[in-house]
């Protein structure tokens, strides 16, 4: 039985596909039971986030897992197959270590994914689909993620526009948890910013977009509210942080609108982050005393400052992961050898019992104890050496030399010349 990882993520699949193969939390336990109901999957856990859906499982025939994934979501295999990746054994172990450590995330080093992996494990434990192999895999996964987080600077520096937006907001307010945040737009950059701000637990988040359906989709993922974009003027005063990134050819927040909002806020500061090109917020807004306006160029400076040290941290993290993958594979190999070790010890025990029983019979008959002990030791030696000797005698050609090396290593024999 081998370990496998099968799934798709933001690198391989567009949002439209990721949405269709996502597992709703309330259906996850049933899905796990369904996946392991047949004989082809013995153990399983499912990780499902807005950026990825992945199956981690132990099986003899992994090919059928892709069929199951498509069937469960009422899709044809042809629809989902182009976006899937499948990792066997070593690659699967390395993949889950990288995922939990934040190396496979949209934002390198983001911490939220570790909690999501832990939730996936909790669901699998509740459903009873975690066996010895997956239990040990995830124990090791959490240990690796902790080591990466504590011994490298993987999460210490800002290397994305979205993370920079949160970073700059924290410089002004100290913390984001007391602030109300408005996102203008609902594209990929806004979605990424929303993910970052959500991790800082603001008081509220609101998404304003021209297309209500898209606003609802983004807001739904992060527990945010929605608002019509034409209401921004009257509602702007309520927000402490405004992040905008639309494709509008004209500014959405003008100087007059910002002035009215600042006056209504009684000069409480407001952070505005304009990620749009062309700009969504008129440059003159930066001249207002209580507005801290940051553009793409401002954020780029923050990102550049963190990039070099983050790249070194990634190299260090990958080194840790490679070492831990080797360690886990060694554990698996030792585990696979356990039945053979048990059989070998049982064989030796059977030989011992037979020789001792024979010796006791001879002693009961009145034979010389010294001769009985000699016969006992010779009998044990002959029977225990019979297997290796026959192995050597039956090997031929190149196999004979290899057999000699194996026996020499097995019994720790000195090299012969």
Low-confidence segments, given as residue ranges, are none
Number of helices: 15
CATH superfamily placement of the largest domain: Glutamyl-tRNA reductase, N-terminal domain
Radius of gyration: 32 Å
What is the N-to-C order of secondary-structure elements (H for helix, E for strand)?
EHHEEHHEHHHHEHEHEHEHEEHHH
Please give the order of strands in the largest beta sheet. 7-6-5-8-9-10
Proportion of residues in extended strands: 5-15%
Main pleated sheet? 6 strands, parallel
At CATH level 3, the topology of the largest domain is Beta Polymerase, domain 2
Helical residue percent band: 55-70%
Structure description:
A hairpin with a 3-residue loop joins strand 2 and strand 3. It is elongated and about 115 Å long. Helix content is 57%, strand content 14%. It folds into three domains: 2-151, Glutamyl-tRNA reductase, N-terminal domain (Beta Polymerase, domain 2); 161-304, Rossmann fold, CATH 3.40.50.720; 338-410, no CATH class. The chain has 15 helices and ten strands. The chain is an alpha/beta fold and 417 residues long. It has helices at 15-21, 25-35, 63-72, 77-80, 89-100, 112-127, 132-151, 161-173, 188-199, 212-222, 232-235, 255-264, 296-365, 369-394, 398-410; strands at 2-9, 41-48, 52-59, 85-88, 180-184, 204-209, 225-228, 241-244, 270-274, 291-295.
Please provide a brief summary of the model:
The protein has helices at about 15-20, 25-35, 65-70, 75-80, 90-100, 110-125, 130-150, 160-175, 190-200, 210-220, 230-235, 255-265, 295-365, 370-395, 400-410, and strands at about 1-10, 40-50, 50-60, 85-90, 180-185, 205-210, 225-230, 240-245, 270-275, 290-295. The chain has about 425 residues and is of the alpha/beta class. It has 3 domains: about 1-150, 2-Layer Sandwich (Beta Polymerase, domain 2); about 160-305, Rossmann fold; about 340-410, no CATH class.
